[in-house]
């Protein structure tokens, strides 16, 4: 169950306006029972990243970059502060490895499934010549 204060931090109108976080990040924050201040911080950083990527896309249209990946990264970059909320109001590096654990442990199963077929992909690749 999401607390009312977390829900407000995720959805409340702000001045200046803040875009909503990606649904996957909202679900993660709700699952982890994130502190409301963390959700508000991630919304603010996500908004800055959105404005920057908008500007870069207009100013440098020839520069390829994955806008969605940048926005996703901005939206969850401090998720480790769920375990170290003291770092929401002061400095500290403890949230960095905690964030890695919180988010990337969920990827282990996916990576295991992908790795299971690696030999087949490499075998397929090997059946084709290096030069045409």
From TrEMBL:
Pfam families: HD. Residues 39-99 form the HD domain. InterPro entries: HD_domain. It comes from the Bacteria. This is HD domain-containing protein.
